Amino acid sequence: MDAMIDATELWSFDAYAKARLPRVLPEFPTVGMDISHHIIFVVRHPRRHKDDSDITSLIKVDTRRKTLLSVFRYYEKQHQDGHPAAKLTTREN
Hints:
Blueprint: H1 7-11, H2 14-18, E1 27-31, E2 38-45, E3 54-62, E4 67-78, E5 84-92
Antiparallel strand pairs: 1-2, 2-3, 3-4, 4-5
């Protein structure tokens, strides 16, 4: 099948390295609604320190062209009052 990709292949993409994504297994693959060979994955960034923000990225991959199409990064950190604060950044290739 030409529309398959494995994690090591994904990690080898230049765009993956440029987006500073961690080498962790992508989770929750979801098929794109418009184009079936566009797959969206969740990538959870490991925390380096206990005070770090939780960082989660949604990445869109074209499994036919073997390219990373976009990265949506979500930062969440607790405020001192206990409520979450969130920041969303977007990068499209």
